[in-house]
Structure formats: structure tokens, C-alpha cells
Design a protein that fits this description.
It is a single chain. Helix content is 24%, strand content 19%. By secondary structure, the protein is of the alpha/beta class. The chain binds iron/sulfur cluster. The site of iron/sulfur cluster (SF4) has 11 residues, from loops.
């Protein structure tokens, strides 16, 4: 069965309830839910709809500036929850969240750890409390931490905000994430090391131990001379002040740096052929695998750690600017 068939009525009702009635609406669907476009369109006949045809990385990625340029007076973001720090979207935006799986189907294989920091990615947040109950019934101590500024709910993590786990990791001897894929879990494993991190995919009922994301070669920071700093204008990824601080710091070390702006970066950034190393202050997960780019790419998190730039708050470099 196709995913998310329950969503169109929710989206249609959310748009219909808006007062005043929106004239033109931009709908932002994740790739896995783009097949819902026709159903949504049928249900909102009489409202002018545009479906965003480019990427949908997360709640950080609302195409609000583009919506304004297209004359839209509402954006509907599907499948993500709003981030706590927002106050600057150019067009009113509503969020229709999407939760996968039912609590009655939840199965958790046994793990030996006695105390667990439990977190979830956005789509599985509704399973946090049922999972806690199952684990506690087995005699485990379970901790749900408060999340950071890139999240909406306690116990939530994104690929750049692991505060819900790191804020309670001292009390735990393992971390469990309800999620799928590696996007959130590999960064979580890095942030929580040396604790073991397990990922439970609730849809499959499979539990696996997660390997931390591979460390980039931070030595490039010292060995190379010419840097490009990637700055995104996505609303949850725009960290221009941070890029400027890193640039100043590099220049104070006698190095050269240019800032390169864009929306979603592709290997075409290699056209800046004078640049020897890229640093991204955009999404830190985009470049976990930089082989496709043919150039070393460091995340701002790694660089901040190495250079002690600014008053970085632990575990979510975005907190530095936004809290
Ligand atoms: S990990 Fe990247 S895509 Fe996910 S919320 Fe953070 S900046 Fe956005």
C-alpha cells in the first residue's frame, strides 16, 4: 500500500479552515509522499495549488521565499513539525505532521542495557510513550530528554539536534532511537559516543546497533590554505553570522576563505576550483559522504570544535545562533 493515504483529508481540512481563505497555496511534500498530489488537488478544487517540485529535507527547508515570489499566501508543509526557533518565515505556514506505525504493533527486541535514553525521529514520536512503557515493564529505566531548538517535542531528534539524547545520556548506559535509515542515527551515535546507540525501525520491528558517522579529516583545516564556506538560505539552515565568524577565524590563521551561497548544493560547487576544502554551515548531514563532491567537506560542527569559534552550545551548533 502507498504511504500516507490518510494525509490528504487532513491537508484539505487544514487549508479549508484557514481564514481568510488562501488564494494560492504552495504544498511542500517529502519525496515519499509526492504521490498524494493528485488526491490533494482533487480535494481542494477551487483553490489555486502549487506543489513544490524540488527537495524537502526537513522542517528547516520550507521554500518560503520562493512561495512569496510565486504570490502564494500560504505554505503547507507536510511530514515535518515546526522548529522552535522560527520567527522569520516570509509566508504563513502550517504543518501537517505524519506519524508512521501503530502503538499496538510495536515490538522491541531485548537489549541488555538497564537504563536507556529514548528518542525518536519526527515520524515515530507518537511511539515514544508506548516504547517507554514496554521497556519499563521489563525493568529498564528510561529517560526522555528535552529537545533542542531544531525540534518541536521532547524526545525528538533531527540530524543536527541530538539534545534530547545528550541531555540525559549521563544517566543512561545506552541510547535507543525509533527511526529508519541512517540520516538521524549516525549523527546521534557520534554525539552520544561512547554509549552504544541502537536503532529500532518500528515498521520492521528490527533493532540494529548504529555506527557513528565517519569523522572527516579535520587535519585539512590546518594543512590547506584556501577554503569555501557554504551558506544556505533555507530558513532553518541560514547561519550567515556563523559563516562570517569562521571566515574571520581562518583569515586570522593566515588562510583565505570565500563564502558561497545557495539553496541545496551539488557537486557543481567544484567549479570554485581554487577552493581546496569546503566547510558547510548548512545541513551538517548533507555531506556525511563527500566522495561525490571530490573535495573534503567539513561540517561547521567539526570546525567549531577544532577552532573554538564563538560560544557554541553543546550538541546543537544551531543553538549558538538561535537560542
Ligand atoms: S539535519 Fe539537516 S535537514 Fe535535518 S533538520 Fe537539521 S539542517 Fe535540516
Amino acid at each position: 500500500m502507498k504511504e500516507g493515504l490518510e494525509l490528504p483529508p487532513k491537508i484539505i481540512s487544514a487549508v479549508r479552515k484557514r481564514k481568510p481563505k488562501p488564494k494560492r497555496v504552495l504544498v511542500h511534500l517529502p519525496a515519499g509522499l509526492a504521490h498524494l498530489a493528485m488526491r490533494i488537488s482533487d480535494g481542494l478544487a477551487g483553490t489555486e495549488l502549487l506543489f513544490w517540485g524540488e527537495g524537502c529535507y526537513g522542517a528547516c527547508d520550507i521554500p518560503h521565499v520562493q512561495a512569496r515570489a510565486l504570490g502564494c499566501d500560504l505554505v503547507v508543509s507536510v511530514g515535518h513539525s515546526p522548529m522552535r526557533h522560527w520567527n522569520r518565515l516570509a509566508v504563513p505556514t502550517i504543518f501537517v505532521e505524519y506519524f508512521k506505525g501503530r502503538s499496538e504493533d510495536l515490538r522491541i527486541p531485548e537489549i541488555s542495557s538497564g537504563s536507556i535514553a529514548l528518542v525518536a525521529s519526527n515520524q515515530f514520536l507518537h511511539l515514544l510513550k508506548p516504547a517507554k512503557k514496554i521497556l519499563e515493564a521489563r525493568g529498564k529505566e528510561v529517560f526522555l530528554g528535552k529537545s533542542g531548538v531544531m525540534c518541536s517535542y521532547d524526545g525528538q531528534v533531527t540530524g543536527c539536534d541530538f539534545v534530547a539524547a545528550t541531555s540525559v545520556k549521563r544517566k543512561a548506559n545506552a541510547v535507543m532511537i525509533l527511526g529508519e535509515g541512517d540520516f538521524h542515527s549516525s549523527g546521534l551515535a557520534e554525539a552520544c559516543a561512547p554509549l552504544p546507540v541502537y536503532q529500532l525501525d518500528p515498521a520492521q520491528g528490527e533493532l540494529k546497533k548504529v555506527e557513528p558517522v565517519k569523522r572527516k579529516k579535520i587535519s585539512f583545516l590546518y594543512a590547506k590554505e584556501r577554503f569555501g564556506i557554504l551558506v544556505s538560505f533555507k530558513p532553518g539552515q541560514e547561519h550567515l553570522a556563523l559563516a562570517e565568524a569562521i571566515k574571520r577565524k581562518l583569515e586570522s590563521m593566515g588562510k583565505k576563505a570565500v563564502m558561497i551561497a545557495g539553496d541545496a548544493f551539488t557537486p557543481s560547487v567544484r567549479n570554485f576550483s581554487d577552493v581546496q576544502v569546503l566547510i558547510t554551515v548548512a545541513c551538517p548531514r548533507m555531506f556525511d559522504d563527500d566522495e561525490a563532491y571530490g573535495i573534503p567537506i567539513l561540517s561547521a560542527e567539526e570546525v567549531l570544535r577544532a577552532l573554538s569559534v564563538g560560544e557554541r552550545k553543546k550538541d546543537s551548533f544551531y543553538s549558538q545562533k538561535n537560542s
